[in-house]
Amino acid sequence: MKRSKQTYDTSFMAAYVMGIRGKQYDMVPSSTKWHWENNTYFDNIIGYKHMEKYVHVSVVAEQYKCAKTLLFGLIRLFYMYQNIVNALPNKNDIIWNYRSKIIQITSPYIARFSVAKISHLLGISYQHYNMLCNNFFCKFSPVLLCRKAFPKQLSLEEISLISSFLKNPEFENWSLISIYYKLIRESQRFFSEKTFYKYVRILDLRKKKKKVQKRSIGPRASKPLQLLHMDITEYWVTDSVRLYTHVIMDNFSRKLMGCKIGITKSDSLALDNLKDVYTRFRLHLHSESIIIMSDGGGENFGKTKHFIASKKNLKQHIALRNKKDCCNNMVEALIRKIKECFLYDNSFSSADDFEKHILSAINSYNSTMPLAATGGRTPDEAFNGINPFPEKLDIRIQNSRTLRFRENVKGH
Question: Which terminus of the chain, N or C, has fewer Cβ atoms within 10 Å?
Fold first, then answer.
């Protein structure tokens, strides 16, 4: 039987002739490779050495490597200078002062590259680039956009409100989402969370925090007094005085219902706090069962366990870290929030001073701090079923957006 002739792809042959060779050519017979090298199929390929007027491929390859190294070096240098410029506080002013030079250099490449890509390389938005081209400059706006040309941006009063709330020492340790809800509740100026975060980033008034790994979502109640969490934490008031604080919170509203402070970690402390909550909130009149979620600490057994067992409408569940539907992460996160917002920046002279401050902090948290989990309501409002927004928030935001557009179109 006659053997069929082996054929090769043209690009495969051309790469060998141009000196780009690898292990894949070991399977090719030597006679075939000699035929490729001594044939004139590839005379018109740039870099193929057939006559003296052509440049040898090894020289071209070496020049390509040098050009590639130089290109990557220039790219790194460019991004280094871009990071330096982005860190300057007056970056927008510098860009505006050199706008004619920027437009002169970048305009020839708009046909080849899009405006979005060019503005991305410059580290600005495409609206900002268009503003440079059209001279839509406004020295009163922090984003340097003319209000008549870009009427969807926030007004100067709203930007000033955001700045004043972020600079307020009272909200220094608050989360941004709590500040957002506090702002729209008190000022009655409505805009979306996304817009708020955008202007916080533009104004650069918040320190960047390290990203924390998201915890798994634990159990969620559908109404108040359906699920309660108990936990205990320690706090060094002075170098020699350590106090234990036992707290009870409601899962649905995030309300801190009870707090007891003691010098020892015992079941008596937990029992006193649970009895106080049971009496003040009249849990004995609650017909449905109430789940008490606690960890496996010794303070949650003994007297505390006997008290829960003696009440028909109370059931105790022991939290397990590996189970999403049976964990105590919520109260642990709340304790951490109370410490960051109200305790760490203060010093205490005695245990009594600490007790007064922690009780005041819990009252302030329950009554003044709006939470995203409760839809912008404070824990007290969510617990008592009070809605501070009689009209849907989305509708208020849309109406404010329409009014803002009309005001910006009219001018300053």
Answer: N
